[in-house]
């Protein structure tokens, strides 16, 4: 691609990442696509309507299954597909108590 490539190193202090130096601030200005490995950054980008390319295992693979050489062909996901994907991610999160009580197993079956 001839597009500008920006690389973001994750700030070490968690407070910086969630208050003043957020990923959302980094991607807000004309970001075409986010490329990364298994990362919360890929999920966050997809949530903000920015297509992603996962270089490793990622929860985003079911929404965006592009290879790096296809970067110019990548398109944002349909809202209905993204909502279904976000619902699936949310419904796949369980607390320790829900796992131990069997509720998680009951819900996924």
Overview of the molecule:
This protein is mostly helical. Helices cover 41% and strands 6% of the residues. The chain is built from six helices and two strands, in the order ααβαβααα. A two-stranded parallel ribbon has the order 1-2. Helix 3 (40-47) links the parallel strand 1 (34-36) and strand 2. The longest helix is centred in the C-terminal third of the chain and has 13 residues, at 79-91. The model has no long low-confidence stretch (mean pLDDT 87).
List the helices and strands and how they pair.
Blueprint: H1 14-20, H2 23-27, E1 34-36, H3 40-47, E2 52-54, H4 79-91, H5 96-101, H6 103-108
Put the structure in a nutshell.
With 109 residues, the protein is mainly alpha-helical. It is built from 6 helices and 2 strands; from the N terminus they run ααβαβααα. A two-stranded parallel sheet has the order 1-2.
């Amino acid at each position: 691609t001839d597009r500008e490539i920006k690389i973001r190193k994750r700030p070490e202090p968690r407070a910086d990442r969630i208050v003043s130096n957020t990923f959302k601030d980094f991607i807000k200005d004309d970001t075409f696509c986010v490329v990364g490995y298994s990362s919360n950054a890929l999920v966050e980008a997809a949530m903000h309507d920015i297509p992603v390319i996962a270089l490793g295992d990622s929860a985003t693979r079911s929404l965006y299954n592009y290879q790096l050489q296809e970067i110019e062909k990548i398109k944002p996901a349909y809202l209905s597909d993204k909502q279904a994907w976000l619902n699936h991610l949310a419904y796949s999160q369980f607390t320790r108590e829900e796992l131990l009580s069997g509720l998680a197993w009951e819900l996924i079956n």
